[in-house]
Design a protein that fits this description.
Helix 3 links the parallel strand 3 and strand 4. The chain has one domain: Alpha-Beta Barrel (TIM Barrel), CATH 3.20.20.30. About 45% of the residues lie in helices and about 15% in strands. With about 325 residues, the protein is of the alpha/beta class. The protein starts with a strand and ends with a helix. The protein contains 13 helices and nine strands. This is LLM class flavin-dependent oxidoreductase. To bacterial alkanal monooxygenase alpha and beta chains. One of its GO terms (molecular function) is oxidoreductase activity, acting on paired donors, with incorporation or reduction of molecular oxygen. It comes from Siminovitchia acidinfaciens. One of its GO terms (cellular component) is cytosol.
Amino acid sequence: MRLSVIDQSPIASNKTAREALMDSLKLAQEAERLGYTRYWIAEHHDLPGLACSAPEVMLGFIGGRTSTIRIGSGAVLLPHYKPYKVAEIYNMLATLFPDRIDIGIGRAPGGSAEATEALSSNFLQNVWKLPELVDELLTFINDDFQAENEHSKLSASPIPKIQPMPWILGTSEKSAVLAAEKGIAYNFGHFMSDKEGKTIVQKYIEYFQPATEEHEPTVIITANAICASTKEQAEENALCSLIWEIQKEKGDGKNGIPSIQEAVKYPLSVKEKETVEIKKKKMILGSPKEVKEKIVAFQEQYKAHEIMINTNTFSTDDRIQSYKLIAKEMLT
C-alpha cells in the first residue's frame, strides 16, 4: 500500500510561524526517508494556527532539500488565481524537480471572507467557472493552449520534460464528477467531510473519462491519523488537535494547538464534548498494530490506490513519531 503525507503546517502554542514552517521541512525530509510516496502542503489564508499561505514557496524550499519524494500542493485554491500564472509556477517547480511535482486543485476559499476579498474580487464567480478554469490550467500544463491569433502560441514557460501531475481535491460529489470529466486523479478529503465518501468515490470511478488509453481513475483518500506506542497515548496526543478544532469553531484558537495540559483543562460544554467524540471517531487512532488494521480496512472500504495521512499534534516529535511508527508497521 502507498502512504503519503498532507501537512497543514500547524503552529503549536509554544512556537512561531517560522518554527512551524521549519518543522514542515523536517516532516517532509522524514517522510522521504521513511518511504512515504508524496508530501503535500496545504494553502490557508489568515487562519489562526496555520503557517502556510503560499505552498509554492514552501515547495521550492522543500524540493531543494529532498531528492526523491513527490511534493505538491494540497491544494492550489484555483478560484483565487489566473490559471496561466499557476501553470508557470508548477512548470517551474517541475523543471527544477523533475518527475516529482503534483498540482492539487481545490475550490475552497481557504480563509475568511475578508481574506478572500483581499485575494480576489470575483471569487464566487470563479467558483462557478471552476470547470473552465481547470480546462485552461490543463491546456497550459499540457502546453497546447492556442491564443486567439492562430499563428501565435502561448506557453507557460519553462516547459518541463515531465509535466506536473494534476489532481482534483474535494469533499463532495461535485468535485468527484469534475475530476472524472476531466480525466484526472482525485483526492477525497475524508478528514474534512461529513458526507458518505464511498458513494462519492464510486461516482468518480463510474464517470471517469480518460484523456488517453493510458489514463485510469486514480484515488487518494486523506484521513486524520495519530499513532503512538499505546492507544491511550495516541488519544492523549489527539486531544490537543481536537480541542484546537473546538477553539477555532468558536473563533478562538489564535495561539495554535494547545499542549496536552492546556487541552485537558479546557472547559467544554455538553454539546462540545459530543462534538469532540464525533470528530474522534472519524480519526484513525491507536498503537501501530491498531492503526495498521484501521488503515488497511479504510483502504479496502474505498478501494483507494493510496492513503494520505494528516497528523496534527502539539509536539513535533510526537507528530513525526506517529509517521515513523506507521511507516515501520506498513512500509518496511
